[in-house]
Amino acid sequence: MPELPEIEACRRNIEPYLINQVIDYAVVRNLSLRWPISKEILNIRNQFIFSIKRRAKYLLIQLQHGWIIIHFGMSGRLMLLNQYEYPQKHDHIDIFMKNKIILRYTDQRRFGACLWVDNLSTHFLFKHLGLEPLSEEFNSQYLVNKLNLKKTSIKQSIMNNKIVVGIGNIYANESLFATGILPSRCSMHLSRKEIQLLVKNIKLILLNAIEEGGTTLRNFLQSDGKPGGFANKLKVYGRAKKPCLECGALIIKEKYKGRSSYWCQECQS
Ligand SMILES: [Zn+2]
Q1: In whole angstroms, what is the distance from residue 254 CA to residue 149 CA?
Q2: Rounded to the nearest whole angstrom, what is the distance from the C-alpha of residue 236 to the centroid of ligand 1?
């Protein structure tokens, strides 16, 4: 499943080709993604593209009138074509630009979404979202306040969208390893110092992964949802029973509520 860094890398890659461009027309071949594709997508002719943004794991295309929201679900990806290629079975949407570039949305498993809305701030998808992890507002004081009296595990807390968005399982495991904190630690028992370091590591790891996604994925979101070039840099995620890169102890994996936690018993406490 694409996580925040892959989507941000994709955003950065497509932005220069789409910003200030004018849409010619859109073709929708399959209306049934996770939610039906907004029919308004067909009415975006001649609309100017103001900006390409991201909020949590949603890619947002700001038009003269309204926004296109793209969610990649499990297997969605965007491709930029500079000449028409005959669509394959899972190529559901094409948006043709006047500059001849085509933005193509492909989604094999169809858990993604493509919606048009006139107002983002009041939309049900965005109303209850927490802070962006790379924003200034997401700092240790904010997290100290949020974790105060919280009895859930620290891993669940940093993956909680109402606190901070876009930290999926991979990056939660990696940030906790980098900070030396066990995923199962009770949120309210973390020290201020640990929270400071955790916030710093979350930002560093996400930025690093965005860079890697940007350099290896170019105009594509990888279809298997793996974290692009960052895959080689993962220290615990997906490394069960392999030696810890810091101390040599074997990495432990445990499944909880369908999500796997990975940690090193020696480096994390
Ligand atoms: Zn270790």
Answers
A1: 25
A2: 9
Q: How many CA atoms lie within 13 A of 93 on its CB side?
A: 28
Whole-angstrom Cα distance, residue 216 to residue 193? 35
Residues making up the annotated binding site are: 90, 109, 150
Query: Which structure tokens are listed for 39?
Result: 């029919």
Rounded (5°) CA angle 195-201-205: 150
In the chain, % helix, strand, coil (3-state, to 5) comes to: 30, 25, 45
In the annotation, is 132 catalytic? no
CA of 261 to the centre of ligand 1 (A): 15
From 200, 203, 235, 259, the catalytic residue: 259
Q: Do 155 and 63 reside in the same domain of the chain?
A: no
| Whether 259 is catalytic | yes
| Total number of domains constituting the chain | 2
Over the stretch 212-233, which tens digit does the pLDDT of each residue have? 874 444 434 443 444 567 877 8
Question: Do 259 and 145 share a structural domain?
Answer: yes
pLDDT of residue 122: 86
Q: pLDDT tens for residues 2-38?
A: 889 889 988 998 999 999 999 999 999 887 888 888 8
| Domain CATH for 25 | 3.20.190.10
Binding-site residues from annotation for DNA? 90, 109, 150
Range of the domain at 109: 4-117
Determine the distance separating the centroid of ligand 1 and the alpha carbon of 241, expressed in angstroms: 12
* Among the ranges given (78-87, 145-154, 224-233), the one the predictor scored with the smallest mean pLDDT: 224-233
pLDDT, tens digit (0-9, with 9 covering 90-100), for 250-260? 999 999 778 99
C-alpha of residue 264 to centroid of ligand 1, in Å: 5
Catalytic annotation, pick one of 11, 57, 155, 239? 57
In the predicted structure, residue 172 carries a pLDDT above the cut 90:
yes
